[in-house]
Backbone:
């Protein structure tokens, strides 16, 4: 080494250590982002599965309510209709209503709007008004509220019936069932509402 000259500094190792640190930090951030994304996806899938289960329960409850209403039609509700007694909550006489009103009552939101705008399944607070419908005897476990239904008398159809359904005067009825979703653990999930309808032509025996 010549006098007056300092030895050269080797900075290559420090540069490599610095590059490795930056690369490691970048990888750590990427892994963290992937973890957060996976966690969010799992939560969304859990919510979707919960919603699907809730809707399935409500659908089953509504179907069971329709079956219950149909099984009691001739022995209970038709007897009231023949007697012209519509005092039973949930039994409605639409035989004198206009054709349009019988097909689609009043408004598109008739079944969900509170009275007097709609039928009044729910009161002004959003709770089910039990005075406007019939409680089903078919119990479905896990739902927030057991399904309820309404029986509408739509009038008669004179013979002869198409396809020989009835040889005598037939009575038309429509059933509308409403079911509320499930309650899960400590968090109440009852936003899902399933409404089903069926129409029956009754040939009295």
Residues:
């Amino acid at each position: 080494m010549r006098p007056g000259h300092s030895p050269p500094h080797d900075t290559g190792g420090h540069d490599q250590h610095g590059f490795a640190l930056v690369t490691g930090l970048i990888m750590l951030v990427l892994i963290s982002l992937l973890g957060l994304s996976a966690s969010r996806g799992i939560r969304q899938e859990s919510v979707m599965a919960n919603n699907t289960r809730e809707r399935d329960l409500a659908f089953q409850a509504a179907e069971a309510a329709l079956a219950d209403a149909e099984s009691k039609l001739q022995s209970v509700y038709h007897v009231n209709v023949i007697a012209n007694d519509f005092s039973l909550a949930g039994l409605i006489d639409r035989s004198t209503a206009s054709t349009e009103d019988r097909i689609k009552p009043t408004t598109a939101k008739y079944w969900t709007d509170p009275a007097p705008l709609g039928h009044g399944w729910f009161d002004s607070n959003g709770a089910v008004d039990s005075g406007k419908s019939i409680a089903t005897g078919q119990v479905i476990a896990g739902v927030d509220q057991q399904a309820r239904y309404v029986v509408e008398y739509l009038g008669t159809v004179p013979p002869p019936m198409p396809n020989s359904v009835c040889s005598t005067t037939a009575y038309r009825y429509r059933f509308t069932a409403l079911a509320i979703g499930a309650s899960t653990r400590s968090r109440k999930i009852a936003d899902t509402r399933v409404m089903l309808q069926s129409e029956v032509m009754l040939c009295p025996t």
